[in-house]
Amino acid sequence: MEEHEYKVVRLLDELLPLAAKAQKSGLSVDLRLYLRENRHDGKLWAEVGFLDPATGRLLNHAENSLPLDSPEAVGWFFGRIAEKGFPLAVEMRTEPGHG
Fold first, then answer.
1. Which of 26, 29, 65, 68 could pair covalently with 73 via S-S, beta carbons 3.0-4.6 A apart?
2. Is 80 helix (H, G, I), strand (E, B) or coil?
3. Considering its fold, how many domains does the chain have in total?
4. In a domain, 95, yes or no
5. Residue 99 falls within a domain, yes or no?
């Protein structure tokens, strides 16, 4: 596993359960996508923010954020969110699932 992949797994393990809100058949997660330009070098980058379901405030801060440097990286990151989120949805649902 590459270093950035390890950081993503670690961040999602930390942030996804905090941002997840239990629903009848699974969970919901409020995310915010930031697309920014670095004022020093002009490079474009993105960041996905996880929102606290109780307060609506960002759970991310400098120590647990991950800058994404391309549209492909953003797509890749959302794929990892879904991979981690689907099993969590089964755990968190408020009504029993289908056999």
1. 68
2. helix
3. 1
4. no
5. no
